[in-house]
Amino acid sequence: MLGNVQSMFLVGWRLCKLYESGKVTPGHSSLGKAWNSRMAREVVSLGRELLGGNGILADFLVAKAFCDLEPIYSYEGTYDINSLMTGREITGIASFKPAALAKARL
Ligand SMILES: Cc1cc2nc3c(=O)[nH]c(=O)nc-3n(C[C@H](O)[C@H](O)[C@H](O)COP(=O)(O)OP(=O)(O)OC[C@H]3O[C@@H](n4cnc5c(N)ncnc54)[C@H](O)[C@@H]3O)c2cc1C
């Protein structure tokens, strides 16, 4: 859990530095969001596992952290979409298209 938190912290720190120097790109942001939300999801899963049955009871804060984290995995652009954004930037190829466009070509 500590290793994951440290990696998330370092990704955030690096993004801040890129932002301050005016070099941050949408791909950087998407990679940071995808990585950090994935790592955070793993952290709360490990916390829940550590507590066994108590990990899913409302009396213990791990279950709350679990519920708080799930929206973050989706609402800042889902993990999948952030991954696709990153892929588009590093390859120049977009593996996704707007739903309306996909429908029009059927
Ligand atoms: C707590 C919370 C707060 C929110 N606040 C806001 C807000 O303030 N403003 C706002 O605009 N929105 C907000 N949202 C909405 C959020 O942006 C959407 O939930 C998010 O964009 C995902 O859209 P969706 O739920 O329609 O899932 P869908 O688009 O239906 O996606 C379902 C699944 O399919 C995957 N998927 C979708 N399209 C593709 C594709 N082309 N290729 C591969 N995989 C794909 C997704 O990654 C996801 O896993 C909020 C959501 C939550 C949960």
Give the overall form: flat
- CATH topology: the name is Butyryl-CoA Dehydrogenase, subunit A, domain 3
Radius of gyration: 17 Å
| Name of the CATH homologous superfamily | Butyryl-CoA Dehydrogenase, subunit A, domain 3
The overall pLDDT, averaged over residues, is 91
Beta-strand fraction estimate: under 5%
* Distance N to C terminus: 46 Å
Instruction: Name the ligand types.
Output: flavin-adenine dinucleotide
Determine and state the CATH class.
Mainly Alpha
Helix content: over 70%
Largest sheet: none
Task: Give a nutshell description of this structure.
Helix content is about 75%, strand content about 0%.
Write up what this structure looks like:
The protein contains 5 helices and no strands. The protein has 106 residues and is mainly alpha-helical. The chain has one domain (2-104): Up-down Bundle (Butyryl-CoA Dehydrogenase, subunit A, domain 3). Helix 1 runs antiparallel to helix 2, helix 2 runs antiparallel to helix 3 and helix 2 runs antiparallel to helix 4 (79-91). The protein is flat and about 45 Å long. It starts with a helix and ends with a helix. Bound molecules: flavin-adenine dinucleotide. Flavin-adenine dinucleotide (FAD) is lined by residues 71, 74-75, 78, 80-81, 84, 96. Residues 5-89 form the Acyl-CoA dehydrogenase/oxidase C-terminal domain. It holds the Pfam family Acyl-CoA_dh_1. This is Acyl-CoA dehydrogenase/oxidase C-terminal domain-containing protein.
